[in-house]
Design brief:
mainly beta; six-stranded antiparallel sheet; 23 helices; elongated
Length: about 1900
């Protein structure tokens, strides 16, 4: 099937086909992988024939014949003959079977006819045969089927729960042809197919059904609507076909997750985010944003909704989004707009973020405060002064807006000339924080005093009042002038009720003392009446607008109120009768007790007029005036404010009024509106703006005011009118008016909300006196009762709380009204100790929810039921009746405790001075949370610390002392440890529960114990390697003081060492300051100039449990880099030397720093270059960060190549202590190392020893056993000493060691004697091994090392004399490809290793057995055994090169050419052009040392062409006599091979015959052979002779010596175009030209010598073996001493009692060494004669075949056991001469074995012991007596020491054989034991072969013992 799903590349295709047979229907599913079959258009090749794979008939009908041709083509290169088998069925027919012959490239057509008889599918095959095989071609006839190409699966995008995602896929009805689309085969039908999809929830398919034409595609949309968070996999089934008889399925896959959205806002409260708008000006809009985050991986839809608000509340927050979607891992910004409309109010609203399918909702609190303008006047009073009639006065006043809010103002003052005061501009808008200057004009018309209190209306604020006063004088009348003080007195008189009296009455009352004058000059009654309450600005404004009647109408102070002096009725007049002139009356009433004069202000050219214009009005009287409206123009609007001044009549004459009784006039106004529109005339269309058409009053039953702004937006006047009767409960001022274009009118509304008031009061504004133009004004004036909502239906439950502790719980209180409420919690007195709330008082804004925190602090273990009350009231009415709500509080108290999860917490090791953080887990299993405090008590577990230091040490453990742990939970206490010293710490943690106040409730209780150890960083050197092969591991360990280094690294650093905890550049000097007292020497030993660098590899291991950072700091690494000008330029000698060493990099460390984690290892390479002669020193600081500092003094010595030099690391040596009174003091050794390039001889000055002996009564306290000797280059010699103290004291002697042709060194040797009886068990007799600290195993490999030892050091400890100690070693070849040869170089006869040599294949291991045979005298054994390792491949290559070299040498010896010139010379053959002196000899040889062919003389030797003997090449600067010989030797001292003369023999360079391969201190004649054997009888490895021992494999002694000789051959001469098989190699020149410093450029002579040397083919040198060092240390004690001090170890050793221990007392002549006074053999003729004589004797013996034969026969002779027993009785201490030969490879014969019992029975022992008995008894003996005698004899034999030795040999050999078998895999030591029944008599052959160990004797019967005996021959 196909995988073509648009938009879904993950789905794969399926092909569904329905196949109908004759009697049944079946459904076949064909996968795309199986659709690779049988395509018509595809040709295949079978056995070289190309043809169709299948013939297919598709369009056929019944009864017809349909023929197709099968084409066969031969694509092979040879003739093909095919036979075919026709189809088996009768429906397919073809030609008669025949042979088809196909030539290469030809074709054959085979017709195949199909004749169907039924409507079904047919299938058959044609089979073709050839000589190579057979193949088939399929024949198939198909019928049309319904087939749908649908995808295998459809994957929908992930979707959130209750969300929807969709995708589409395509499916189609195919055709009948077969096509190849990539790898899929599509069977497409020609039939029309109907389909119907069926799928279960949560998937839905569209369209669900339809009809498909052949080949038609259909697009299906899949909808995914999950209801749960699951992985959905649903099979969608499609029924297709004519009647849906076929089905296919598509796997629909979808993933749904729970949605999760977050709100990101700046503020945060308990349970919600907060979006704070702050203070926003009224009428302004502020926009802020919050973010909706979607951290999930699915797209999530959301909806934002407001929580339910109190009814009738305003909606001032608008959210920009109501719903939306958030993409995965993104966020969207949501804007919120705040549009406040009520000044000084705080609005709170809540937005709920809801996600379909989410598990929780998220709240967002939005809050903001509305602020209004702050407007003021620069002056509240303007005094125009006195103005003459007809003139005017100008004054200014500033109106100031001091807020950030725009302010609208309007002065209620006529601007049409009906007022004496004119203000410009009368209305306007003040920007924020601005001011405007107003101009006021005073134009009086009547001589009188004028006073008018002008109101300034402000939007959203109370009005301001401006008092205007002025006086007008005429020529006839000059009234009293008004001053501002008169207004001040008037207000006081008004408050005191005196303004109702005229001035003359007040004067009379003052004269009669009825009133008095106060201190301020104001009048006052003697009995002050009740003060008139001061009116608010809004009330004063309303009273003025109502003509003084507003208070009475609204239930105020009444008609006769003193505050209303004069009233007007009505205050407003409307003239809406069109153009007809009309008039209306207006009534003014006098409420004073004086006569008033009423004067109207005239306005010329005005449409309004008042008649009469003035009159007098008596006290408490009323009068009417006529107001006429006479428009002068049609179709216009007119409006005015008529002004009338009322004043006491007596004020017209100032002479009748006193200043203190003066009363300013009153001003009343009448607002008049009219229009002149004719009937039927359309009025102007108004264009206006009404801000806040909905007016909401506070929900309190109080007089409240609101303002509304009406703006005229048009260019024509606007007339408005409100009907007061429409809504009597609401009063509006003004109710009518005229608004000029561009001006505005501020309307003021007043009402008292009531409970029965409807929710909405309609108010209609009529504009332009037309019923068509109205605007509805909605007023909300409803009283609401204060209402709060308590969470949880008024119940609060506390969780269980520990007694004395405190638990807190949040509790929500919500304001459900539109009133801001103040609340206060009242808790009964006894309950205040138990519960508390914060805040307990505050203000709840409308719709606000406050989260309060309740605290519960119980004091007893009980259940508390408490009932606090919540009291609340509106904030505007603090004195009103308060509401209460009860709250039920329930809490349970219990006792709590905690415990630690672990009783003991071990921190391990912590770095001293550092800190480590850890967590202490605490568990609270109780039902209440517990507050506690922790205490720490520290103790140090180091017994060595004094008590006072433990008390003074600060507590190293820091933790959070006070915490709280919830109930049934686990708490981790974060703690920190800072140890101050290296010791073990123990901290005991205790806790005490705390009360809510923090006080302790109970005694300390144990919690847990924390243990830790303060440590410093530690490193340890675990292994050492050295590139100098002559130095053993023990020597390098001592040279580098590694034992002391490890000891220093384990100690604590001193405080000065921690001055710089990490490597720091701190010094200004080139020799930095030293902060440590630990100083060690790193001695690189000595080497010749120009040698390879001495490399020492140290393996550092972090043995601690903390990481270690280490670094090696050279002096330059510690120096602060200074500028050039700061350098002094003066350096000391030490500084100059350090600069030289550092600049030339003589010492190097790689790497210099690093970090090691616990258990990690790192190899550090220390190298020293031998570039300058002398001793080089450099101080290097070894720094461990936060740890030790150790100063390492690097010392390296470089000597001249021809200098004889012994390297001493120190000038003092201390011997091991020796007990006094002993008979056999141990032998001790001292090492001498030759650090030069030439052999040297040394001589110890024994005169101080002799003097010491003389001082000790002739007793040799200290003896040197080998005071003379020779040391090879790079090797070590051992000086043997014997210390025999007489007293328990320390002996010291200075001894000089002379080096021949070298320096003399003075050394101090010290030895200590001690008394065993005094020291007892503490006597230092053990092997106090400085050697035991040396690692015994190798942990790092040298470059190219392939062979490893299982142990590099063997410490056998303390052993008795005459004992044998055995150890097992393993040699392992770690190479994967190289085969190696190994050979043990044994120079000490006391040590034996088996096998001594061998070969190891790659990955193979060898078991070696080391045996140490202790001698008879106590000794210290310090042996360095060398194992030489050679690669077999390198040795084979050397043999090949040597063979080629020898062939070339023979060729040059035998080939020569004769010329005429040669015939004229002598018969001596020289190379052409050369003389005898020019003949080339091997390097380092003279003419006498030159090798000639056998039977030739020197005169017959062939020289290079053109050279003579005198031209022979010698080393540069040398003549023939200066040719290099071994140091200290002449030509006559050179040893020669067997059968050669002096001139033909070669030895290793630098050695003589006496120095070749003999034990130290011995000559050839002194070499130790087994007892009774000569040199020819010495035991060699099996299959080897003397000449094959210890030489490379397959070589003899002469070949090995020959290979060590540096022979050279002249380069072969090529004559003509002769091509040789081998080409000569260039010589390998050594870099020995360095003489006194660094390598210099060679001179011309040197370069010429090098060119000549390049023409010389040197003899190949054998490969240099790699050396492995095996150190063996032991100390042997005498038997008495060992039994005394080591009784427990005595049973672990076998004492060879047949050997005689040397118990000779010290000082006897037998134990003394040869006299050291004998002069050494000089280099004169005497030495040459002795050397020649001995050489001739030895060589003659070696050349004598009879001597060789006698040696061989001597070994084969039987051992004469009975010869020694004939005359004398057998003594156990006499060694038997016929002892068994040691196993192969031994150099010293072990103690002889005792005779076998059979031999002893027939010998003299039997005769001697039983002779007397046999003489006394008869000839015939009883069997019992014979048996007893045999048992006695056997018992006697068992007690013999020789028998014990044999038994020990057998057992040891058995164990070693078992180990060998286990190593070879022939024996499994861990296998379970099995009992195997064997035949009675059977002999098992030894299957171990030649590799089985054998230590048996020479008895041939013993070799036939079984494997258990372990004595089979090897």
């Amino acid at each position: 099937m196909l995988a073509e799903v648009p938009g879904n590349p993950l789905s794969s295709g399926l092909l569904w086909t329905a196949t109908r047979g004759k009697d049944e229907k079946r459904l076949t599913l064909q996968r795309s992988g199986d659709a690779q079959r049988k395509m018509v258009s595809q040709r295949c090749c079978f056995l070289g024939v190309e043809t169709w794979e299948e013939l297919k008939w598709e369009d056929w009908e019944l009864g017809g014949e349909f023929t197709k041709t099968l084409l066969l083509k031969n694509i092979h290169s040879k003739l093909q003959k095919l036979r075919f088998r026709p189809p088996a069925s009768k429906f397919f027919t073809t030609l008669f079977p025949q042979i088809i012959t196909l030539s290469p490239g030809t074709s054959f057509s085979l017709p195949v006819t199909f004749r169907p008889l039924d409507r079904c599918e047919y299938q058959d095959t044609i089979e073709f045969h050839s000589k190579d095989g057979l193949f088939q071609v399929s024949l198939r006839a198909t019928i049309p089927h319904h087939a749908l190409d649908v995808p295998e699966s459809v994957l929908l995008p992930p979707c959130a729960v209750l969300h929807q995602s969709q995708t589409v896929f395509m499916f189609r009805n195919a055709r009948q042809t077969t096509l190849t689309i990539i790898t899929a085969v599509v069977i497409i039908s020609k039939l029309q197919a109907g389909f119907r999809w069926e799928v279960s929830s949560p998937f839905q398919l569209c369209p669900e059904s339809g009809m498909l034409e052949p080949g038609q595609e259909c697009r299906v949309t899949v909808l995914f609507r999950p209801r749960e968070a699951l992985v959905y996999q649903v099979q969608a089934s499609c029924a297709f076909g004519d009647e849906g008889e076929n089905r296919c399925t598509v796997l629909l896959q979808g993933l749904s997750k729970y949605p999760f959205l977050q709100i990101s806002a700046p503020g945060q409260e308990e349970g919600c985010k907060v979006l704070e708008f702050g203070n926003v000006p009224v009428g302004c809009n502020m926009e802020r944003h919050f973010e909706i985050l979607n951290p999930s991986s699915i797209t999530t839809s959301f909806s934002l909704s407001r929580m339910q608000r109190p009814p009738l509340s305003e909606s001032v927050f608008q959210c920009g989004f109501q719903k939306g979607e958030v993409a995965p891992r993104t966020s969207i910004r949501v804007p919120v707009v705040f549009s406040p409309g009520t000044v000084d109010s705080t609005t709170v609203d809540y937005l709920s973020l809801t996600c379909p399918g989410a598990l929780s909702k998220t709240l967002l609190k939005v809050t903001g405060t509305c602020i209004g303008p702050q407007v003021s006047l620069s002056s509240s009073m303007l005094d125009f002064g006195c103005v003459d009639e007809g003139e005017e006065a100008l004054r200014t006043v500033d109106i100031i807006n001091s807020s950030s809010v725009e302010a609208q103002y309007q002065f209620d003052l006529d601007a049409t000339g009906h007022s004496v005061f004119t203000l410009e501009p009368a209305c306007g808008t003040l920007p924020p924080n601005s001011h405007r200057r107003l101009r006021l004009l005073f134009r009086p018309h009547h001589p009188m005093g004028h006073h008018r209190r002008v109101v300034c209306l402000l939007l959203h604020r109370e009005p301001l009042f401006l008092d205007l006063i002025g006086t007008c004088h005429s020529e006839q009348l000059k009234p009293a002038i008004l001053h501002p003080r008169h207004l001040v007195l008037y207000r006081q008189h008004l408050a005191r009720g005196l303004t109702c009296y005229p001035p003359d009455v007040l004067g009379a009352m003052l004269a009669e003392d009825k009133i008095q004058v106060d201190l301020e000059g104001a009048l006052m009654l003697q009995e002050d009446p009740a003060a008139v309450p001061e009116m608010s600005p809004m009330e004063e404004y309303y009273q003025g607008c109502a003509g003084g009647k507003a208070e009475a109408e609204l239930g105020g102070r009444g008609e006769g109120s003193n505050s209303s002096h004069i009233t007007v009725d009505p205050p407003e007049l409307l003239f809406h009768n069109g153009s007809v002139s009309t008039s209306q009356s207006v009534t003014l009433s006098n409420h004073t007790k004086g006569k008033l004069s009423l004067i109207w202000t005239p306005a010329p050219n005005s449409s309004f007029s008042v008649t009469p214009s003035s009159c007098d009005l008596g006290p408490l009287k009323s009068t009417a005036f006529r107001v006429s409206y006479t428009p002068k123009q049609h179709n216009t609007f007119h409006g005015a404010q008529l002004e009338c001044f009322a004043l006491y009549k007596v004020l017209r004459d100032h002479r009748q009024v006193e200043d203190r009784t003066l009363c300013p006039p009153w001003c009343v106004t009448v607002r008049v509106i009219g229009h002149s529109f004719q009937p039927g005339r359309e009025h102007f269309i108004p264009r206006f703006s009404l801000q806040r058409p909905r007016v909401v009053f506070p929900a309190l039953s109080l007089v409240s005011y609101r303002t509304v702004l009406l703006e005229n937006m048009g260019d024509l006047p606007l007339v408005f009118r409100l009907d007061p009767e429409e809504c009597p409960s609401v009063s509006v001022r003004p109710t009518s008016g005229l608004v000029q274009p561009g001006h505005h009118q501020i309307l003021t509304l007043r009402t008292t909300p009531a409970e029965d008031c409807p929710a909405k009061l309609p108010f209609t504004l009529h504009f332009n006196a037309s019923p068509k133009h109205t605007q509805e004004l909605s007023v909300v004036s409803v009283v609401e009762k204060p209402c709060l909502s308590l969470e949880g239906e008024g119940s609060l439950f506390f969780k269980p709380t520990a007694v004395g502790s405190r638990s807190q719980s949040p509790y929500r209180v919500r304001n459900l009204t539109r009133l801001p409420l103040r609340f206060h919690w009242r808790i009964p007195g006894p309950d205040q100790r138990v519960i508390s709330v914060a805040p307990d008082t505050g203000v709840l804004q409308p719709n606000e929810t406050m989260v309060q925190t309740w605290s519960f602090t119980p004091f007893e273990e009980m259940v508390y039921n408490l009932k606090p009350n919540l009291t609340f009231w509106p904030i505007q009415t603090p004195g009103c009746r308060k509401s209460r709500l009860p709250l039920k509080v329930v809490g349970m108290a219990s006792k709590g405790s905690i415990q630690a999860e672990h009783g003991v917490l071990n921190l391990g090791e912590v770095l001293v001075g550092d800190c480590r953080s850890f967590e202490v887990p605490l568990i609270n299993n109780g039902s209440c949370s517990v507050s506690f405090c922790l205490a720490v008590q520290q103790s140090l577990l180091d017994p060595g610390l004094p008590e006072n230091s433990q008390k003074k040490d600060p507590v190293a453990l820091e933790l959070d002392s006070e915490r709280a742990i919830p109930a049934r939970s686990r708490l981790l206490i974060r703690s920190t440890v800072r140890p101050a010293r290296r010791t073990r710490y123990c901290w005991d943690l205790t806790y005490q529960t705390l009360s809510s106040a923090g006080s302790v409730l109970d005694a300390p209780q144990a919690l847990c114990q924390v243990q830790g150890e303060g440590v410093f960083p530690t490193l340890e050197v675990t292994d050492v390697r050295c590139s100098v092969e002559g130095l053993s591991k023990l020597q390098i360990w001592s040279l580098f003081s590694l034992g002391h280094l490890n000891a220093h690294l384990q100690r604590d650093p001193a405080p000065p060492e921690l001055t710089y905890r990490v490597p720091t550049r701190h010094s200004l000097r080139r020799c930095p300051s030293i902060f440590t007292s630990a100083m060690l020497d790193f001695n690189f030993s000595a080497a010749p100039l120009g040698s390879d660098p001495s490399n020492v590899l140290l393996m550092f291991e972090n043995t601690g449990s903390i990481p270690v950072e280490w670094s090696f700091l050279f002096p330059e690494d510690q120096q602060i880099e200074l500028e050039y000008w700061a350098e002094t330029g003066e350096f000391s000698t030490t500084e100059l030397h350090h600069m030289k060493v550092q600049d030339n990099r003589l010492f190097n460390i790689a790497p210099r720093s690093g970090k090691l984690h616990p258990g990690q290892q790192k190899a550090v390479t220390f190298s020293y270059r031998h570039d300058f002669v002398g001793t080089d020193r450099l101080p290097v600081l070894f720094k461990l960060s936060h740890g030790r500092e150790i100063l390492l003094n690097f010392i390296g010595v470089t000597v001249e190549r021809d200098r004889h030099y012994l390297h001493f690391t120190c000038t003092k040596h201390i011997f091991a202590p020796v007990p006094i009174g002993g008979f056999s003091p141990p032998k001790q050794v001292y090492e001498l190392y030759n650090g030069g390039a030439v052999p040297l001889k040394y001589c110890v000055d024994t005169e101080p020893l002799e003097q010491l002996t003389a001082d000790n009564f002739g007793h040799p306290v200290l003896q040197c056993l080998n005071p003379q000797g020779e040391v090879k280059p790079g090797r070590t010699a051992l000086l043997e000493w014997v210390l025999s103290p007489l007293e328990a004291k320390t002996y010291s002697v200075d001894i000089s060691i002379h080096v021949l042709e070298g320096d003399t060194m003075l050394l101090t040797f010290e030895g200590c004697g001690f008394d065993n009886s005094v020291l007892g068990e503490s006597a230092p007799l053990q092997l106090h091994d400085g050697y035991m600290s040396v690692p015994s195993t190798q942990r790092m490999a040298l470059p190219n090392q392939v062979l490893f030892l299982s142990e590099e050091r063997l410490c056998l400890g303390d052993i008795p004399v005459c004992s044998r100690s055995t150890r097992v070693l393993f040699l392992t070849n770690v190479s994967h490809s190289d085969r190696v040869l190994y050979n043990w170089n044994l120079t000490d006869q006391s040590v034996q290793i088996y096998p001594e040599h061998g070969a190891l294949s790659p990955g193979e291991s060898a078991l070696c057995i080391l045996t140490l045979q202790a001698s008879g005298s106590p000794s210290f054994y310090q042996l360095d055994i060398i194992c030489e390792v050679t690669l077999e491949e390198a040795l084979s290559q050397y043999r090949q090169d040597l063979q080629q070299w020898e062939l070339e040498r023979d060729r040059q010896m035998n080939e020569f050419s004769l010329t005429d010139k040669d015939l004229q010379q002598s018969q001596t053959s020289y190379p052409q052009g050369h003389t005898q002196s020019q003949t080339s000899y091997p390097q380092g040889h003279t003419q006498s040392q030159t090798s000639y062919p056998q039977g030739q003389t020197q005169s017959q030797t062939s020289y290079p062409q053109g050279h003579t003997q005198s031209q022979t090449s010698y080393p540069q600067g040398h003549t023939q006599s200066q040719t290099s010989y071994p140091q200290g030797h002449t030509q006559s001292q050179t040893s020669y091979p067997q059968g050669h003369t002096q001139s033909q023999t070669s030895y290793p360079q630098g050695h003589t015959q006496s120095q070749t391969s003999y034990p130290q201190g011995h000559t050839q004649s002194q070499t130790s052979y087994p007892q009774g054997h000569t040199q020819s009888q010495t035991s060699y490895p099996q299959g080897h002779t003397q000449s094959q021992t210890s030489y490379p494999q397959g070589q003899t002694q002469s070949q090995t010596q020959e290979s060590n000789t540096k022979e050279v051959l002249p380069s072969p001469q090529r004559t003509g175009p002769v091509v040789r098989k081998y080409k000569t190699l260039p010589p390998i020149c050594s870099s020995s030209a360095v003489v006194g410093g660094m390598c210099t450029r060679p001179s011309r002579a040197e370069r010429r010598a090098q060119r000549e040397a390049s023409q010389v083919w040197r003899r190949p040198e054998p490969p240099c073996p790699t050396l492995l060092h095996l150190g063996v240390t032991a100390r042997s004690h005498s038997l008495l001493e060992f039994q005394t001090f080591f009784p427990s170890l005595l049973s672990t050793h076998h004492i060879n009692r047949s050997a005689r221990p040397n118990v000779t007392r010290c000082g006897s002549r037998q134990s003394r060494p040869p006299s050291v006074d004998m002069p050494p053999l000089s280099h004169g003729p005497e030495r040459e004669i002795i050397t020649h004589t001995l050489t001739s004797i030895f060589r003659s013996l070696l050349d004598d075949p009879h001597f060789h034969h006698s040696l061989v026969n001597g070994v084969a002779e039987p051992v004469p056991y009975f010869t020694q027993l004939r005359q004398t009785a057998y003594t156990p201490t006499t060694p038997l001469p016929g002892a068994a030969t040691p196993f192969p490879g031994t150099r010293e014969a072990p103690p002889p074995c005792p005779p076998t019992p059979q031999l002893l029975m027939g010998g003299s022992l039997y005769s001697a012991g039983v002779t007397e008995v046999t003489k006394q008894q008869p000839q015939t003996q009883k069997p019992t007596v014979k048996r007893e005698r045999q048992l006695n004899v056997q018992e006697t034999i068992r007690r013999l020491p020789e028998f014990c030795d044999v038994t020990e040999e057998v057992l040891l050999n058995t164990l070693q054989n078992l180990m060998m078998e286990a190593f070879l895999g022939e024996l499994v030591l861990t296998a379970r034991p099995r009992i195997i029944a064997l035949p009675p008599v059977s002999a098992r052959r030894n299957s171990c072969g030649s590799r089985r160990l054998s230590r048996g004797g020479a008895d041939p019967d013993r070799s036939r013992e079984t494997r258990g005996g372990g004595s089979s021959e090897s």
